[in-house]
Design goal:
Blueprint (H helix, E strand, L loop, with lengths): L1 H18 L4 E5 L2 E5 L8 H22 L7 E3 L9 H19 L4 E3 L5 H5 L4 H22 L3 H10 L4 H8 L3 H15 L7 H15 L4
Parallel strand pairs: 3-4
Antiparallel strand pairs: 1-2
């Protein structure tokens, strides 16, 4: 492992020097921390952009040089004072954790881009589980008993602004299949959640919260 870590650092150092010279690389367990150095105090948007472009270059070089390795990158918020490094570090770790659950391994996730996931990530998991069960219980039970994908289909259908064709592309099925599943959702729930903006929002947020329980 030490040899592999040194190899990785050897590949990353030139990339970091190209984007952010004099940045610090620290190995901590299975995590590699990069403290980005700026020659002059930048605006927050500039710092965010620099961190994102550096992260993309680092991911690309690792994928290129190390076959089969996938890395997830989290970016903490930019703070002018070094005293806030710990806060930025915690945000980067949270960004990785949520990014892996929501987007899958290998994603670059910036804390400031988490949006509603950043808020939901602060919610107790028992509360998330309780809310999910209360709202989705009938659909989850139907999926379990019939080996269907109604819950997954509903989430993607809402993601795609209730477009059968767009949801079908993501699910690799025919649009009529999506329509059939959504009609089944209505039947099982006993009402049309799509006619009520508040219900639609409740279900969509709950489906997103469930992702934070994965892994």
């Amino acid at each position: 492992m030490r040899k592999l870590e040194n190899q990785i650092k050897g590949y990353l150092r030139p990339v970091i020097d190209q984007y952010c010279p004099r940045s610090l690389i620290v190995l901590r367990g299975n995590k590699l921390l990069i403290f980005v150095h700026f020659e002059k105090l930048p605006e927050r948007d500039q710092a965010r952009e620099k961190a994102k472009s550096t992260a993309a270059a680092l991911r690309d070089i690792i994928l290129q040089e190390f076959t089969g390795i996938r890395i997830s990158i989290g970016i903490g918020e930019f703070y002018p004072s070094p005293l806030d490094l710990c806060k930025s570090y915690r945000e980067a770790i949270q960004a990785i954790d949520i990014g892996d659950k929501v987007y899958g391994y290998g994603h670059i996730t910036a804390y400031h881009e988490l949006g509603v996931y950043g808020i939901l990530g602060q919610v107790n998991k028992d509360i998330i589980g309780g809310v999910s069960l209360a709202l989705l219980e009938r659909l989850l039970q139907y999926d379990s008993e019939n080996h269907t994908d109604l819950v997954k289909t509903l989430e993607i259908y809402l993601d795609e602004k209730e477009s059968f064709s767009a949801a079908a592309k993501r699910l690799f099925v025919h649009p009529n299949t999506v329509k059939y599943r959504i009609d089944k959702v209505r039947d099982i729930l006993g009402f049309d959640l799509f006619e009520h903006p508040e219900q639609r929002l409740n279900f969509h947020l709950t489906l997103k919260m469930r992702r934070l329980l994965i892994f």
